[in-house]
Amino acid sequence: MKGIPLHTITRLSADDFDRSVKSLADLLVDVVAGGASLGFLIPFDQDAAAAWWRARRPAVTEGSLIIWAAHGPDGVAGTISLALEPKPNGRHRAEIIKLMVHRDARGRGLARELLATAEQAASQAGATLLLLDTVTGSPADHLYDSAGWTRFGVVPDYATSPDGVLEDCSFFYKQLT
Question: What is the C-alpha to C-alpha distance for residues 172 and 156, in angstroms, rounded to an integer?
């Protein structure tokens, strides 16, 4: 239906996070299977994905990691995380990590909406500088470039794709006003 959003983006409290681990793990397995370079190699299964998410719990509880989930008709279709810098001399900066959109939900602007949500929250938290990295030439690379982020470097052969191929990585920053 026209005018009705396809997804609802919500910040996950610690309790919401606990209830969402299975759905977040399903999403992570999907995007890794789709070739997203998120730090994991295939084969990568639900148990490994759920364990990775559960290890984030302490940071979510203490508030140093903020996670949003985009819920759609078929469950969690996307997520983004914002890691706040705990060091006293770095509290003005934060890092965007693990922006993921399910393969079935791509091409509808969800990644851009998740990114805007995290940027706004970072600003509200007092961050004036955001950082992130992504595979050079990937759809995410193009998203960040078109969303006003500044590429400040490319490191060749920085990480491997899920199937073990070395890939270049672009590093970006964005100053918030």
Answer: 15
Record the pTM. 0.93
Query: Strands across the sheet with 150-160, in order?
Result: 8-11, 65-72, 75-84, 93-101, 129-135, 166-175, 150-160
Which pLDDT score, from 0 to 100, does residue 74 have? 84
Please, what are the averages of pLDDT over each run of 10 residues along the chain (177 residues)?
71 96 97 94 96 97 97 93 94 96 94 98 96 96 97 97 96 95
Q: Report the amino acid identity of residue 62.
A: E
Contact partners, residue 24, CB within 8 Å, separation at least 6: 49, 53, 67, 69, 76, 79
Burial of residue 112, with CB atoms counted within 10 A of its CB: 0-12 exposed, 13-18 middle, 19 or more buried: middle
User: DSSP of 43-73, one letter per residue?
Assistant: S--HHHHHHHHHTTHHHHHHTSEEEEEEEET
